[in-house]
C-alpha cells in the first residue's frame, strides 16, 4: 500500500517513476495501479507488461476508467521525440484515466509534473521509501510503499517483449496524436481497432467537456 502518493496521483492523473535500473520502478508502478483499482471498481488496468490483474488491451471499447501502466516508458514518450507533439493529457480527469510511467531515462516534461524516485534501494526492507516531487511543491516529500514483497508475484520479474508492444505503441501514439500516426507494423484489423477506440474516447471527451 502506498502512503503519501495516492492523493497527488488523483490530482495530476499522471505519475513518473524514475531511478536506476533495478531500483523498484516497475514494482512501484504495479503497486500504484493495484491500489487505484482496489479503491475504484470502475477502473481497468492495461499495461505493456504482463500484469496479473490487467485487462486484455483488445477488450477495451474506450479509454475511460482506465489505468495505463507503461514500463520503460521512454520507448513511447521520449523527452526529445515528444517535445513538440500534442497531448491529450488535459482530458485524463474527464475520462477518469491515469497514466503511470516508469523509466530510467527522462520522458516528456509534461509527464514529469509528479515524479517519484526510490531512496535507500534495499529490497529486503519491509517498507520502501520514495522521494515525491511535484511542480506545485518544489520541496520533495516522502512517500512509502508498505509490504512491497506482496506485489512481487503480480508480474514476471523477467519477460520478453511481444508483438503486443507494437499494438500498445499504436494505442498510445494514436491517443496522444489523435490518429495522426499509426505504426506500419499494425495489421489492418489492429489499425481499425485503434481508430475506433480513440474515436469513441474523443467523443466521450467532447460529451463531458
Amino acid at each position: 500500500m502506498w502512503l503519501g502518493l495516492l492523493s497527488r496521483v488523483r490530482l495530476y492523473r499522471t505519475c513518473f517513476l524514475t531511478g536506476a535500473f533495478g531500483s523498484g520502478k516497475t514494482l512501484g508502478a504495479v503497486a500504484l495501479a493495484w491500489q487505484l483499482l482496489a479503491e475504484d471498481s470502475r477502473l481497468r488496468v492495461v499495461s505493456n507488461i504482463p500484469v496479473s490483474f490487467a485487462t486484455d488491451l483488445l477488450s477495451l471499447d474506450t479509454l475511460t476508467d482506465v489505468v495505463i501502466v507503461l514500463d520503460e516508458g521512454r520507448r513511447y514518450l521520449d523527452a526529445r521525440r515528444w517535445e513538440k507533439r500534442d497531448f491529450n493529457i488535459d482530458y485524463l480527469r474527464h475520462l477518469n484515466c491515469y497514466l503511470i510511467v516508469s523509466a530510467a531515462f527522462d520522458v516528456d516534461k509534461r509527464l514529469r509534473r509528479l515524479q517519484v524516485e526510490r531512496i535507500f534501494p534495499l529490497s529486503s526492507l519491509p517498507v520502501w521509501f520514495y522521494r515525491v516531487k511535484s511542480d506545485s511543491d518544489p520541496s520533495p516529500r516522502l512517500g512509502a510503499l508498505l509490504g512491497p514483497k506482496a506485489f512481487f508475484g503480480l508480474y514476471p520479474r523477467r519477460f520478453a517483449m511481444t508483438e503486443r508492444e507494437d499494438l500498445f505503441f499504436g494505442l498510445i501514439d494514436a491517443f496522444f496524436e489523435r490518429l495522426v500516426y499509426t505504426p506500419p507494423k499494425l495489421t489492418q484489423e489492429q489499425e481499425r481497432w485503434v481508430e475506433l477506440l480513440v474515436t469513441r474516447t474523443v467523443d466521450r471527451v467532447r460529451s463531458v467537456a
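Residues 41 and 87 are 27 Å apart (CA to CA). The chain has one domain: 2-156.
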